[in-house]
Please model this.
Amino acid sequence: MNKDLKEQIVDLVTPDLEKVEQALEENLSPHLDLVKQIASHLLFSGGKRLRPLLFIHAARMCGYKGTNEVLFSIIFEFLHAATLLHDDVVDGADMRRGRPAAHTCWPAPQVVLTGDFLLARALDIAAGTKEPRVISVIAKITRDMSQGEIDQLAQKGRKDLTEDQYLDIIERKTAVLIQGACQCAAILAKVSRQKENALKSFGFHLGMAFQMADDLLDYTATAEQLGKNPGADMREGKLTLPLIYSLARACPKDRKWMENLMANPDVDPSQFKKLQEKLVALNAIAYTRAIARTHVDNAKKSLEIYDSSLSKSVLTLIADYAVYRKI
Amino acid sequence: MNKDLKEQIVDLVTPDLEKVEQALEENLSPHLDLVKQIASHLLFSGGKRLRPLLFIHAARMCGYKGTNEVLFSIIFEFLHAATLLHDDVVDGADMRRGRPAAHTCWPAPQVVLTGDFLLARALDIAAGTKEPRVISVIAKITRDMSQGEIDQLAQKGRKDLTEDQYLDIIERKTAVLIQGACQCAAILAKVSRQKENALKSFGFHLGMAFQMADDLLDYTATAEQLGKNPGADMREGKLTLPLIYSLARACPKDRKWMENLMANPDVDPSQFKKLQEKLVALNAIAYTRAIARTHVDNAKKSLEIYDSSLSKSVLTLIADYAVYRKI
Model:
């Protein structure tokens, strides 16, 4: 099932993906080699281009009449890459997309400034839409994402994060950008506010599902699948839904044991394996997957207002893929 | 003379300044206390509000008919503050505006993200202009500034920086933002392209003069006037015009001696005093001041296309102040 779903999507989006890669390459155009190196290290290291693909197919589903959907789609990949660069510096994580994080190859200041540069490029292209509402959405994305990161940083190491606080963090960290990409497609295609809100809702639920699935993979995938060691969130003291759910339901002894594992960079593999088993036993994996699946269902329901089309099918497949994917 | 000039400007802009302070306060509106603390530390620590004042008076000189000149003016203060926060982290400087730099009070990641947040706020307000060309100018400012910083970082410690390379760096570091503030005022006031270019040119020359005067003060002002120890640029290995000019004209023995002082964080005051005397003897102070003054003259000439008005007088006074100020 998983492989089929991925193959179906790949078949449908391959021509778009090639255009997106080309547009990313062409629009990087910095004057400085160093910026190009740092930005390329991240941009061309096997990202899924989820955000550009969502934008392109959302625009087409809305009947976008212009010719710039590929160019405008990369706004959201540049925004995404900019925040990844800043987050890497902020988190101090060593690996990203299976490669050393940028800040382990270059000094942090250069990485921060390259993030700023990518943000500026995103803005440059966004200005080309000549649509103030698109700029407002992008401003909101940037504001929410930076606030979400600061919030997450402030909560780091807290062992009493609630599910609501977690939802709030992942909304700002991930959902806001995916929601914004979908909404901007609707704005540029000039659909009704009702249809725009439907796409916004689709993006929100998809983003929530994607982040939950990501957080889940940190407990369920192998190092090879992830491109980094699983359990990284826990070792960094970052609480995500599987652990939040488990902490709230574990017996005092187990809770104490889990709390001791958190924020410990040297948890040994046998301990981590025991934790994985505990999460399964406490139903935390199934619970997280169920919540993610509900978001996917809501995402798909949001699209009911739209007539059937190839692009609507692509969006629906991507939504399914969000929770069924193994990597 | 100096005091008179400053007093004249203060008299003319005090009512605007109060409105700018109020708008900055009202528009900071973050959800998080930490962001507010970090942003306020920098924003409300005695900045000159040069960029908002330039914007407001440029808009009025252009006959701007709207009612948002104060609100839009703070775009440029937020942009300025955002880059100062990132620069502080990048430079690792300890003092800023006479207070400890933000990154010495808070962890660098929070400071970086607060910079991102301020950039997002600037963008938010800019989107409210509903003028795509304003967004393009802001995108260009952000891009040039981040590239300029990266460039400066890459050149740091180089002892063979040329005058042209220096001019290029300060253009992107300082002039582009001031130029952009003036140009956006013209765009929003819907003047002719010729008048817009005149204001853009005014901003460019003013920005160049301001940065040169700033760089000069690092060799000529006292610690009390500066709010930090003079000679900071040199100790950080940052070459500016007075030293570039001197290095090119010193005898080999003196050049060797100056090169040894550079990038040395522990230069003692008597050595620094000797360097100051050397710069005077080599005519470097007078040369830098003359170049800055030429930029001020060009800035003022750029405004000839505009009829006389109170705001034109304010802009002219500010241009004079750029090189005659003592702090």
Remarks:
- Strands of chain A lie at 95-96, 99-100.
- The longest helix of chain A spans residues 193-220.
- Residues 22 and 70 of chain A are 9 Å apart (CA to CA).
